[in-house]
Amino acid sequence: MKSMHSIDLETVEMTLDIMKYAINRISNTSPDLSKPKKEEELLKLVGETVTEKGIGGEEAFRLFKDVLVKASVPVDHPRHLAFVPAAPTRAAILFDLVTSAASIHGAYWMTGGGGIFCENQAMKWLVSLTGLPENAFGVFTSGGTAANLSAMIAAREYWRTLDDQNKSLKALVITSMGAHSSVKSMAKVIDADIITVDDHEEHKLTGEALQNTISTLSEFDRKRLFAVVATGGTTNAGIIDELDHIAEICKTEKLWFHVDAAYGGGALAAPSVRPLFKGIEKADSITIDPHKWMFSPYDCGAVIYKNMELARNAHSQKGSYLDIFKDEGAQGFNPSDYQIQLTRRLRGLPLWYSLAMHGTKKYTEAIERGLSLAQNAAKQIEQMPHVELIREPGLSCVLFKRIGWTPEDYRDWTYKNHDEGFALVTPTKWITNSTNETCARFCFINPDTTEKDIEDILKTML
């Protein structure tokens, strides 16, 4: 009986088919803006695909190409401006294929030394953007959620070492109301309470608002407060908290200072807005997602620590079958020692290859392009009578409203544009004068988006 690991004619033909598809997809700069179908409908179209004897590689691939991929939304479409889209470089996409083909386990240097070396080259650049001290470093994770969680576990474990009584206390974190949902989710996972606060005007965490909140805590709550999570670019509006002032308060109050820059961290490479991040260099830990604004394929996040030893103390796993990885003969940088995952693929390799191929200057240019598109969108909105800016652009996010529209109008407009395969732009909410207002939102990541795309989308609101 033929083994499923054997190399035969069917495998060769399957390889050629897949490579042909990949080449065609990578070279397609404007793929169809597909839309999802209900699970029941997909099941009727393709049937059961996992069977005892299999349906064959050719049939499975046909179903994917003809049905299943067409029920998915390509995040790199130039008129996909919803959520936080992505636009991985062709180089990064190709090397994602190489990463899988190379079949390297990236948890320990003993098994993944060469690949980890490449990841670390890319990480050096990320760390250099933050301005953190010389010994700061980081590791690649599956995304911002895993990065935030890894950082908070390191923070909590460090806090517990400061006083034995802390081990019996339920920890407490302060963050802003605009913080990403993963921050609140992270608090649940580590069984910590969370206080959300902002200045109620710009919807950012300010030094004054933070200090006032800390000052009003009870003695018990102050004792269990261990960290502050600031945001370096909220996903809804691109708002950057007062990082510098927050850092000084955290230093005085002896609190761990974490900055969630999962979306906004890419802008650290853009000179036009880099000053807005003043104070990030004082953070104890930082989250950045290369699969957002650094043009990597999913899934690639990163967590960076000022003191790597504190992270290692929290995350390094022990087990008899793992002892060899700690042996002198296998020594090297072990990424699994600094984040929650043990088994890991080399997520940073596609970013490394793209950086090595194009150079960091090209990254700066592409990120500045997203910022420029946001400014152009604001200018166009100001010149059109039927739409109105909610606030000035925050990084590459633009909030605006169609005058006279209801929440239902925004919903119907979103579905109409998507159903027609024209654009995907979704509504959000913004609090103005204590009123939670529905509005539209652009988020510019893809440098292939054009000013004409923006104009055409705005005209669909007429």
Automatic annotation (TrEMBL):
Pfam families linked to this entry: Pyridoxal_deC
Keywords of the record: Decarboxylase, Lyase, Pyridoxal phosphate
InterPro entries per record: Aromatic_deC (IPR010977), PyrdxlP-dep_de-COase (IPR002129), PyrdxlP-dep_Trfase (IPR015424), PyrdxlP-dep_Trfase_major (IPR015421), PyrdxlP-dep_Trfase_small (IPR015422), Pyridoxal-P_BS (IPR021115)
Cofactor: pyridoxal 5'-phosphate
GO biological process: carboxylic acid metabolic process
PROSITE patterns in the cross-refs: DDC_GAD_HDC_YDC
N6-(pyridoxal phosphate)lysine: residues bearing it: 292
The UniProt record lists the keyword Lyase: yes
GO MF annotations, alphabetized: carboxy-lyase activity; pyridoxal phosphate binding
Domain of life: Bacteria
Homology family: Belongs to the group II decarboxylase family.
Protein name, UniProt field: Glutamate or tyrosine decarboxylase
Organism of origin: Psychroflexus salarius
